[in-house]
Amino acid sequence: MRIIYTLMPCAVFMLIFGCGPQKETIPVAPDIITEPHQAFTDATLLFYEHGVKRWQLDTYYMNKPLADTGHLLVVPVKIAVYDTAGSLSARILSDSGTSDSKMDIFNLWGGVHIKNEDGMTVRSHRLKWFKNARLVTSDTIVQIETPKGDILMGKGLNAKDDFSRFSFSSDVQGVFPDFKRRVEEEGDENFFM
């Protein structure tokens, strides 16, 4: 009897609070959201100029504030660049990137790697691409490797976006395999080609 009187309040408590409708918890985002934005996963962004595809961006994650129609944050960056005839001319990879609202300036950072169709490779931690001006700049160390194995490195890059011409601001270094033989055989005009 004593056990029944002891268990009775517990059973009543369980019936009232345990069997009643449960309140659902409200989901909370892990980050504080300060402005409305759109988030896309597995996204592709295409850019055409005069009916010809000029570049294609493929990414896993893209974030775009609703108040700014063009500004994008992209993680990771995978861009295929096409020439005016529509042929692939370069591939650009980086960990992350942003664009301005007009999509004229692209900031790339974290393991930036560019390879053009001529076999030239460019590596840096940070690059800025001015699309309409067709320029690439950086304020960090940049390494450029030619198809013949020449390695040029320096700080402060200023280059055409096809890397047909480039210059460094400071700390310039280079490695040129078979330098003497190549200069004698190829002459100055064809040394880097």
Structural description of this entry:
This protein has 193 residues and is mainly beta. The chain has one domain: Sandwich (lipopolysaccharide transport protein A fold), CATH 2.60.450.10. Helices cover 13% and strands 52% of the residues. Strands 2-3-6-7-5-4 form a six-stranded antiparallel barrel. The chain is elongated. The model has no long low-confidence stretch (mean pLDDT 81).
Topology:
Blueprint: H1 2-18, E1 37-49, E2 52-65, E3 72-75, E4 77-82, E5 88-94, E6 96-99, E7 105-116, E8 121-130, E9 135-145, E10 151-160, E11 166-175, H2 179-186
Antiparallel strand pairs: 1-2, 2-3, 2-4, 3-6, 4-5, 5-7, 6-7, 7-8, 8-9, 9-10, 10-11
Q: Give start-end ranges of low-pLDDT stretches.
A: none
Give the ordered list of helices and strands: HEEEEEEEEEEEH
CATH domain class name? Mainly Beta
- Domain tally: 1
| Largest sheet strand order | 2-3-6-7-5-4
Overall helicity: 10-25%
Class from helix and strand fractions? mainly beta
N-end to C-end Cα span: 100 Å
Number of helical segments? 2
Name of the CATH homologous superfamily:
Lipopolysaccharide (LPS) transport protein A like domain
Quick tags:
52% strand; 11 strands; 193 residues; 2 helices; mainly beta; 6-stranded antiparallel barrel; lipopolysaccharide transport protein A fold; single chain; elongated
